[in-house]
Amino acid sequence: MAIIIQSCQNEDSITYKRYYVNGKGLYEKNCQNCHGTDGKGLGTLYPPLTDSTYLIANKKKLACIIRNGQSEQITINNVAYQGQMPGNNTLADIDIAQIIVYISNSFGNKQGHYDQAEVAKELAACK
Amino acid sequence: MKKLLFIALGTLVIQSCTNQSDTKLPILGNREPVERTVDGKTVVDTIYQTISPFSYFNQDSILVTDKDFDGKIYVADFFFTSCNTICPVMHRNMLDVYKKFKDNPKVKLLSHSIDIKYDLPSRLKTYATKLGVEGNQWEFVHGSRDSIFNIAAKNYLVSAFEDSSDPQGLVHQGWFILVDTKKQLRGAYDGTKADQVKQLMEDMDKLLREEAANEN
Question: How far apart are CA B170 and CA A29, in angstroms?
Answer without folding.
Answer: 19
